[in-house]
Design a protein that fits this description.
6-stranded antiparallel sheet, 5-stranded antiparallel sheet, 13 strands, about 40% strand, RmlC-like_jellyroll
């Protein structure tokens, strides 16, 4: 398993070894010893998520309120997606910026997002399957959203893509509105409470 720190602290790309023969493919997209060696923490699994999306679907920018906050590990089991980490931590040197990794069902790269980071993805193919490992249980009132179309953030939605979004994401507030409402996590508090790779 190879690891690469993205430009935002707390966002790490993992690339596993994929074994292929005439029977098919065998891969382990998540290896706890490699994960903990890079992130400095064991993975505390609370739930898994599985989503299927057609080309052009945009999901996010999602994050968990703090407290309790939460972290996640995301990979693409089938298809292809542009997976995006957004720094929502007020006071962070990279606040309001994003970094992205292309995930697909061939390389099985994955993305780890620490507490305080927002997550979004754009499905680049029909029948794209995304799988998540999450550290927190689902509590609707703690699951928050920022608009993926906020021009201040400027997510890299491919040209010619007409974003297909949920009502929740369509109605989501901008980064500035979320900051004014006190919805966003604090960078120094995140650093004090949670390890960063």
């Amino acid at each position: 398993m190879k690891a690469r720190q993205l430009s935002i602290s707390g966002a790490v790309e993992f690339t596993p070894v994929v074994y292929t023969d005439d029977r098919g493919t065998f891969v382990s997209p998540f290896e706890e010893p490699d994960f903990s060696a890079v992130t400095g923490r064991p993975f505390e699994l609370s739930r898994t998520i599985h989503s299927t999306s057609r080309r052009g679907v945009v999901r996010g920018i999602h994050f968990t309120a703090m407290p309790p906050a939460g972290y996640k590990h995301v990979f693409c089991a089938r298809g292809r997606a542009l997976d995006i980490a957004v720094d929502l931590r007020v006071g962070s040197p990279t606040f309001g910026t994003w970094d992205a990794v292309e995930l697909d069902g061939e390389s099985f790269r994955s993305l780890y997002l620490a507490e305080g980071l927002g997550h979004a993805f754009v499905a680049l193919e029909d029948d794209t399957v995304m799988s998540y490992l999450c550290s927190t249980r689902y509590v609707p009132s703690e699951e928050l959203s920022i608009s993926p179309l906020d021009p201040r953030i400027g997510l890299p939605i491919p040209a010619g893509t007409e974003p297909l979004m949920s009502e929740r994401d369509t109605a989501a507030v901008t980064l500035d509105e979320a900051a004014a409402r006190g919805m966003l996590p604090d960078y120094e508090r995140c650093r004090a409470l949670f390890p960063l790779p």
